[in-house]
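Possible regression after last week's pipeline update?

I re-ran a chain I had predicted before the update to compare outputs. Posting the input and the new output here so someone can diff against the archived version. Not blocking, just want to make sure nothing changed silently.
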Amino acid sequence: MTMPFYVSPEQLMRDKADYARKGVARSRSSVVLQYAGGILMVTPNASSVLHKISELYDRIAFAAVGRYNEYETLRKAGVTYADVTGYQFDRGDVTARGVANWYAQTLGGIATDSSKPYEVEIVVAEVGAAPDADQIYRITWDGSVTDEPGFVAFGGQADQVAAALKEKFSDGMSLAEALGAALDALAAPSSGGSGASGAPGSSGQANGEAAGLTAAQLEVAILDRARAHRTFRRLRGARLEELLAEGRAPSASSAPSASSAPSAAGDDASAASSAPSASAAGDDASAASSAPSGAGDDASGAGDDASGSGSAGDSGSGPASPPKPGPRSDEPPTGPAAGGTDGIPRPPAR
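New output (post-update):
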């Protein structure tokens, strides 16, 4: 009988964690956040039948990323748990915290007992009668539960998306503002480079297209606080296109003002650079125009020196100084000189 190969529990759980995290990192990021009228859920999804966002109970919704067959199994089990609990006790006893704890126990048991963990991350959200009563819970592949006040980003490059969403999120946002903030956050990985997870096959290039996604490429749902019984509602069609236009309008209107400043600066820089060049050109032109007169003066001086040296040689009073060379024959005339009218110096007539 052969002995099985021994693997330490630490190494086994480390391998499972790496496997599950890489599977989740290959998915596309999703966002869940509060707004003034309830809770908004946004995820890129081109399919109209394979949903990532679903209703669990009256005021509770479910969102997931990862392998579809695995989180769809969890969704159905969660619906069954909520229905049975509400039937046995009371509908008010079904809460997002109870559902999240049940999911944590289920995923924790699968991660420990099964040879392959589930490659999923799920979010359970419940809308309350007031914003302070809203609840958002994030459950990871190993059954860890975290309470996320205000907003949560999960799946894909969640760290970059959450950092961008933190800058744009504020209490009391309208539905259009919340949708615009969610789309801007989902587009953050494209401008921020490679993802923080570093997992191969991560979906940064896919998330980067979120800012330009159309209504047909998005799955959007809300938990509407104003509804009395079943608060879950999907946003699609003309209503979603209207919200997308409203959410993208503020960023589009601020773009021209931002771009006009560098343009004006460029105009000032070009005007400033053109002024010294014009004055320099004027100085060069004036210097060039003054050069001929200087050359004529030199030629005139050379003629005077030549005449002076000739007269000194005639008188014979002392050694004659060598004559200074005149202008070369290949140079053009430089102007009237003492020896003639054509610019070439000549000795005076005796």
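Follow-up from reviewer: compared with the archived run. The helical segments are 9-25, 68-88, 96-113, 158-168, 175-186, 188-192, 204-207, 237-315. Marking as no regression found.
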